[in-house]
Amino acid sequence: MTQHSRTALVTGGGAGMGRATCLRLARDGRAVAVLDIDRKAAESAAQSIVEAGGRAVAVAADIADRSQLEAAVGIVRNVLGPITILINNAAVEDFSPFQEINGDLWDQLMAVNLKGTYQATQVVLPDMVKAKWGRIINLSALGAQSGAPNMVHYTATKGGVIAMTRSLAIELGPKGITVNSVSPGFIDTPMSRRAIDGNLFPVPHEQILATYPIPRIGQPEEVAAACAFFASDDAGYITAQLLGVNGGCFP
User: Fold this and answer.
1) In which region does residue 179 sit, left (phi positive, over 0), alpha (psi from -120 to 50) or beta (all else)?
2) Residue 63's closest CA among 126, 119, 136?
3) What is the mean pLDDT of residues 96-119?
4) What distance in Å separates the CA atoms of residue 217 and residue 230, rounded to the nearest whole number?
5) Residues with active-site annotation
6) How big is the CA angle at 38 (ends 94 and 86), to the nearest 5 degrees?
7) Among 249, 231, 199, which Cα is nearest to 25's?
8) pTM: predicted TM-score of the whole model, two decimal places
9) What are phi and psi of 139, to 5 degrees?
10) Backbone dihedral region for residue 239 (phi beyond 0: left; psi -120 to 50: alpha; all else: beta)
11) What is the DSSP secondary structure assignment for residue 187, as one 8-state letter?
12) What is residue 151's DSSP assignment?
């Protein structure tokens, strides 16, 4: 299997960093499966790839639902073939003081951000094992390293993703599969814009950005570039790593 015949699955691929990653991987010659809970968003991203001359399919699924995920992956395999690149990007966020986080909210974030990452990886993994080649890239978050007020539940899920990445890398390395994590900082996504517009940060976001060595908001395409590198043959001897795309903000 050549680099340009490989199929990538991007969860949460309909918007933000996920969409940018879909477009970048397609530009690099990959066939791309755009998976999103929002079918229209997934179809829009896939259409952009096809119109540019690439191969893509859109599938809708809630990654917290194993049966939906398995059905979506089945469609991808039928249309694009085995999946050997997985970008675990889908996530939900919430801003709540710790004492106001109830069990349902905690469980919702765990189900999508952590369990969803585990489920997507487990469903796709047989293709990589059979190919003796695979790339798994998990999106974590700067807050999981630095901590973040009013986001205990969110950062806990992303900290779990970091730990999962390292353990999977050790387990899957002998099978020809690398597992790495990209940790975005303040990136211009719909999620970040909701937080900015809702004044959900403890201080104005301009003050946060002003403390960064590169004092600006990051772009989804910059995260996509990091994911594309980890998905490439050039990264074949790199695994269990955490790459911050965060303007130099050190946790």
Assistant:
1) beta
2) 119
3) 98
4) 22
5) 154
6) 85
7) 231
8) 0.95
9) -85, 120
10) beta
11) B
12) -
Cα radius of gyration rounded to whole Å, the chain? 17
Rounded Cα–Cα distance for residues 238 and 223 (Å): 17
Across the beta sheet with 56-60, the strand order is 56-60, 31-36, 7-11, 83-88, 134-139, 177-184, 242-245
**CA distances in angstroms from 106 to 61, 114, 133, 144, listed in the order given:** 21, 11, 35, 16
Q: Supply 247's token pair.
A: 């303007």
Distance CA 102, CA 134 (A): 38
Contact partners, residue 51, CB within 8 Å, separation at least 6? none
**CA 41: distance to chain centroid?**
16
In whole angstroms, give the CA distance from residue 186 to residue 142. Answer: 8
Region for 218 from its dihedrals, namely left if φ exceeds 0, alpha if ψ lies in -120 to 50, beta otherwise: beta
What type of residue sits at position 38? D
Query: Per-residue pLDDT tens for 189-247?
Result: 888 888 888 887 878 888 888 989 999 999 999 999 999 999 999 999 999 999 999 99
Residue labelled with tokens 């889908």: 90
DSSP 8-class letter at 47: H
Domains detected in the chain: 3-189+219-244 (3.40.50.720)
